[in-house]
Amino acid sequence: MMRRLLFAEESVMSNALHLLEDLEPSIQEFRDAVLSGLGTRQKTLPCKFFYDADGSRLFDEICNLPEYYPTRTECRLLGEHAGEIAALVGPRARLIEFGSGAGVKIRLLLGPLDRPAAYVPIDISRGHLLAAAAELALDFSGLKIMPICADYTKPFALPALSGSRPGIDVGFFPGSTIGNFTPDEARGFLSRVGRMLGRGSAMVVGVDMPKDESILLSAYNDKAGVTAAFNLNLLIRVNRELGGNFVLDRFVHEARWNGVLGRIEMHLVSRCDQEVRIGSDRFTFAANETIHTENSYKYTIDQFQAMAIGSGYKPKAAWIDEAGLFSVHMLEVHE
Ligand SMILES: C[S@@+](CC[C@H](N)C(=O)[O-])C[C@H]1O[C@@H](n2cnc3c(N)ncnc32)[C@H](O)[C@@H]1O
After folding, report:
1. What is the DSSP letter of 267?
2. What one-character DSSP code corresponds to residue 262?
3. Where are the alpha helices (DSSP H) in the chain?
4. 126 lines ligand 1 (CB under 6 A)
5. Which of 32, 102, 189, 328 is the 20 to 30 Å CA partner of 315?
6. Would you say the C-alpha torsion 146, 16, 200, 74 has a positive or negative sign?
7. Is 48 in the pocket of ligand 1 (CB under 6 A)?
């Protein structure tokens, strides 16, 4: 992994916006993941590679779709309970957000927080991360912002803070991004993050809940076709960055509910028998064969709290909207 430092947007003349720590995955990592994923019997592509500049823009559009209940429901919950979260967290906390995206939800937590020591947004999508950090610096002048472009499934170190800091570290993982991991991966991620933050730290996690299949299917199969464009953008990215020759209209987006595993699955379905080249590698597709691109697991409060306890956390609070669509959990790192 290449490690280099870049100046964050020079146009932002705030000395509170720190240098970007750049651990963006290399093109070789992307190539290896794509070739190995397309070489398995059920072809797969890792969802973390959705997020190039176009993918991040499309995800932000998804968040505003009428069918996509998670974003507005989670924002409402965070807005309603930010005061309680701030009281549990205490003064001078350092906030560390995993998959910070457009940086919309952190604003809801920052408002009532007592003199936060710093904000560390971590995201794989470098340009989007920089733009969001620069905007936040304009709106929260004086807040120390220390962006890291990294794949949070890989080990990396948190920045050192100068001076004494009486507050705790608080991890923030909204958007039900935890649901993109399998349960085993989610436990591994939570345990690793718990060790990174340290005993006595806190973690705030947004978790989507099981619900009527029709609500789920329309959220991931929106009428405007934005989720379809987001899914297909992965093939555009393979073509552009890895020399692929996917013909886009030979694949179609499909979201399926897998009731046995409690997850939404996103697939790209081949419309015909075809062969695709990526550089010198060739992959054959039968008609209706799919590339599985994303999972989105749904957890009840009890299921998620059991997972958190098994990963070294003590549940401190859980908030749900009145329709029981979405939950926000506050956890304490226990082990
Ligand atoms: C589902 S979006 C959620 C965005 C935002 N947190 C929200 O709640 O609206 C996932 C975010 O995590 C980032 N991301 C996905 N996989 C990642 C990984 N392995 N490492 C770092 N960032 C990742 C994406 O770029 C994207 O911004």
Report:
1. E
2. T
3. 27-38, 53-63, 69-89, 105-110, 126-139, 183-197, 213-220, 226-242, 301-310
4. no
5. 102
6. negative
7. yes
In order along the chain (335 residues), what is the average pLDDT of each group of 10 residues? 41 68 96 98 98 98 98 98 97 97 98 96 98 96 95 94 83 98 98 97 98 98 98 98 98 98 98 98 98 98 98 98 98 93
Q: Which helix (H) or strand (E) holds 258?
A: strand 251-258
CB of 177 shorter than 6 A to ligand 1: yes
Q: What CA–CA distances, in Å, run from 256 to 43, 246, 264, 267, 269?
A: 16, 23, 6, 8, 12
- CATH for 4-26+69-211+299-333, options being 3.40.50.150, 3.10.129.10, 3.90.180.10, 1.10.565.10: 3.40.50.150
State the pTM of this model: 0.95
| CA of residue 2 to ligand 1 center, whole Å | 20
